[in-house]
Amino acid sequence: MSTDKVILLDFWVSPFSLRPKIALAEKSVEFEIKEEADLLGNKSDLLLQSNPIYGKVPVLIHKGKPICESTIIVSYIDETWPTPALLPPCAYGKSTARFWADYIDKKLFDAGSKIWMAKGEEAIKVAKKEFIEILKVLEGVLGEKDYCSGESFGFLDIITISLASWFYAFEQYGDFKIEDECPKFSAWMKRCFQRESVAKFVPEPTKVYEFVGMLRKMYGIE
Amino acid sequence: MSTDKVILLDFWVSPFSLRPKIALAEKSVEFEIKEEADLLGNKSDLLLQSNPIYGKVPVLIHKGKPICESTIIVSYIDETWPTPALLPPCAYGKSTARFWADYIDKKLFDAGSKIWMAKGEEAIKVAKKEFIEILKVLEGVLGEKDYCSGESFGFLDIITISLASWFYAFEQYGDFKIEDECPKFSAWMKRCFQRESVAKFVPEPTKVYEFVGMLRKMYGIE
Q1: How far, in Å, CA of B15 to CA of A107, rounded?
Q2: Residue ranges in B57-182 assigned as alpha helix (H)
Q3: Domains of chain A by range and CATH?
Q4: Which InterPro entries does the UniProt record give (chains A, B) (predicted)?
Q5: Backbone torsions φ then ψ of A82, nearest 5 degrees
Q6: What is the model's pLDDT at position A164?
């Protein structure tokens, strides 16, 4: 393996794998995608060697060394290719961005996934309420700004918009519209999805929806 | 409040609050501790204002601004007072330290707490097994080095040794010795506990044990 190459171990629908893809595109770094075609079953030897602890995508391989965990990978990308900066320059700005990234990592995707995993109307209602409450917190973080990171698209936008690639599926299975609940957050989503670095890699919402449908069948939900 | 002051919202037995205390001591930064005396019941207005999302210690207040979440606080301290450096200088070293800090944050303390929370011999056995498996992974990270961070005490040592302040209580309630299971990890613990920045702030093992005993009564475990 050439040591200069940047390689991403990826799975096309993974919202977490989308993060390094967008970050690398923002930095205009060329990289090779190695698709883990069989992620639900067998994992490649390269994935298991590169991420022995979790055996999960994404893994960034740079100079022959693996970096794991999507939020940590985005930080690595920002430190390795500093222009344009994704994280704020000051320590306080960095700590705020990391705080919200951590909040999102702990809460957002799991809450959204509960919507399509829920069986029965009442369970769906509870899951939807929890998810929308989190979105409202994030809408508060966005405030009147164009981007979560401030005036320009940055670290926190990448962390969040990547997970939003699944929101259409959440809306379909929860029978609700984020636009009705959180209009400012929804406008931010549209703004980000139109951005070149995002548009280039984000999977089609209907394909994610189909994939989630397949997961529901697999888990015996429908 | 003076804006130059460094204030830590603390609770004496919190293993997470120990992290910023050790990091500030390593940097020779003077700080004022504000004890949340009534953490199990009422929280101070300052804590709720400073950490409205979680309402939890530790919170570092620097230049009048709050920084929350212990691992993020230690990063902030390292960026704000750069000497001596706690995180490695290179992006790859940083990403490795962050990966293990994240692993520890996700697994170690919860697994240990399951030991004293367990009811019945079988449950204690399962909890102990899980906890020791995690310690063995961390012993592998330590390898033959004196410190997790390498030749000198650093970020990952602070993240880990702070949680180790509860390990005596885990051992007592699980009836085992870390020294027997993970001798190298145990030697590292002793090395760290003797360090001035740690020894100055780490609570007495027997006091932590008593505190855990109180928690057990509160939760109706004994």
Answers
A1: 23
A2: 70-80, 91-117, 121-142, 155-164, 167-174, 178-181
A3: 6-80 (3.40.30.10), 91-218 (1.20.1050.10)
A4: Glutathione-S-Trfase_C-like, Glutathione-S-Trfase_C_sf, Glutathione_S-Trfase, Glutathione_S-Trfase_N, GST_C, GST_C_Tau, Omega/Tau-like, Thioredoxin-like_sf
A5: -70, -15
A6: 98
The pair of structure tokens assigned to A48 is 């298991």
CB B32 within 8 A of CB B5: yes
Q: What is the pLDDT of residues A126-167, one digit of tens each?
A: 999 999 999 999 999 999 999 998 889 999 999 999 999 999
Note the pLDDT of residue A1.
47
Q: What is the pLDDT of residues A36-91, one digit of tens each?
A: 976 566 899 999 999 999 999 999 999 999 999 999 999 999 999 999 999 999 99
Distance of alpha carbon A87 from alpha carbon A75, whole angstroms: 8
Mean pLDDT of B33-49: 85
**Is the minimum CB–CB distance between B92 and chain A shorter than 8 Å?**
yes
Give strand pairing partners of B33.
B8
Using 50, 70 and 90 to split pLDDT, how confident is the model at B12? very high
Helices and strands (H, E) in chain B, number of each type: 11, 4
Across the interface, whether the CB atoms of A94 and B103 are under 8 A apart is answered no
Closest by Cα among B86, B106, B108, B87 to B96:
B87
- Which residues in chain B are contacts of A87 at CB distance < 8 A? none
CB neighbours of residue B2 within 10 Å: 9
pLDDT at B1: 47
Q: Measured between CB atoms, does B103 come within 8 Å of chain A?
A: yes
**Chain B interface, best mutation among A16, A27, A98, A159, by max B CB count within 10 A:** A98
Q: Cα separation of B212 and B216, whole Å?
A: 6
